[in-house]
């Protein structure tokens, strides 16, 4: 008799980091609104797949809070930390991360979205890689004030060991199996957000990949 195999996700310890998507940057960051669209999709997927979310703001007193479009999707975030450091991997985030992820064994698969690709995203990625975590940088959800900085930053992060990919590719890799219970909801989400994803891909990936 053949024993049945219970479907499981490909990634067992995923986490999502949302970096500094604040109103003050809306008119400064290249294709900012498209980054927000992709981040909304990623955060909706996080709710379906029950993936913990960590978010930061940069000097909120000076630069303002997180954009209104993301606030409803961040209500269940593990933490939203204000920082002055460029890296999201602050002591406060580390403490929350350690408790939530129960890092007594193994490492996490962390996906990064936000700004700026050559500063905060880069430093966060390098810090996470140094801790032994696997890092996925979503090229349709990161940008900078200067679009020429983006492909250079992504090339550096690839060389350092990060995986540079797209939101849809990451979602399906995170699931790994169409037989998992959440697959239908994720497939529906991908279909619903298809037009927004196309806008993000058209606007960002020409130079980012």
Structural write-up:
Residues 15-168 form the Isochorismatase-like domain. Belongs to the isochorismatase family. InterPro entries: Isochorismatase-like_dom, Isochorismatase-like_sf, Isochorismatase_domain. It comes from Apiospora kogelbergensis. This is Isochorismatase. The chain is globular, with a radius of gyration of 16 Å. A six-stranded parallel beta sheet has the order 3-2-1-4-5-6, sandwiched between helices. The chain has eight helices and six strands. With 209 residues, it is an alpha/beta fold. Strand 2 (53-58), helix 2 and strand 3 form a beta-alpha-beta unit. The chain is 44% helix and 18% strand. It has one domain: Isochorismatase-like (Rossmann fold). The model has no long low-confidence stretch (mean pLDDT 90). 40% of the residues are buried.
What form results from the Cα inertia axes?
A: globular
- In N-to-C order, the SSE pattern is EHEHEHEHEHEHHH
Helix percent band: 40-55%
Please report the number of helical segments. Answer: 8
Q: What is the percentage of strand-forming residues?
A: 15-25%
Strand order of the largest sheet: 3-2-1-4-5-6
> Structural class, please?
alpha/beta
- Characterize the biggest β-sheet: 6 strands, parallel
- In CATH, the architecture is 3-Layer(aba) Sandwich
CATH class: Alpha Beta
Strands, count:
6
Determine the mean pLDDT: 90
The span between the termini is 48 Å
Gyration radius, to the nearest Å? 16 Å
User: How many distinct domains?
Assistant: 1
Question: How are the SSEs ordered, and which strands pair?
Answer:
Blueprint: E1 14-19, H1 32-49, E2 53-58, H2 60-63, E3 79-83, H3 91-101, E4 109-115, H4 117-130, E5 134-143, H5 149-160, E6 163-165, H6 167-175, H7 183-192, H8 194-208
Parallel strand pairs: 1-2, 1-4, 2-3, 4-5, 5-6
Helix pairs in contact: 1-7, 1-8, 4-5
């Amino acid at each position: 008799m053949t024993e049945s195999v219970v479907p499981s996700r490909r990634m067992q310890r995923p986490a999502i980091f949302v970096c500094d998507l604040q109103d003050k940057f809306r008119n400064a960051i290249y294709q900012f609104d498209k980054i927000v669209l992709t981040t909304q999709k990623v955060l909706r997927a996080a709710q379906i797949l029950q993936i913990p979310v960590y978010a930061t703001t940069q000097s909120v007193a000076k630069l303002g809070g997180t954009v209104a479009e993301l606030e409803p999707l961040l209500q269940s975030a593990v933490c939203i930390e204000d920082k002055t450091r460029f890296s999201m991997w602050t002591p406060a985030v580390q403490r929350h991360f350690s408790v939530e992820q129960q890092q007594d064994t193994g490492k996490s698969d962390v996906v990064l979205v936000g700004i700026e690709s050559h500063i905060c995203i880069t430093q966060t990625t390098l810090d996470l890689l140094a801790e032994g975590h696997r890092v996925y940088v979503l090229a349709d959800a990161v940008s900078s004030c200067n679009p020429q900085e983006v492909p250079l930053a992504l090339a550096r992060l690839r060389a350092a060991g990060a995986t540079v990919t797209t939101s849809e590719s990451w979602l399906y890799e995170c699931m790994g199996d169409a037989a998992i219970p959440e697959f239908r909801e994720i497939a529906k989400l991908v279909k619903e957000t298809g037009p927004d994803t196309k806008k993000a891909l058209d606007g960002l990936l020409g130079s980012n990949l």
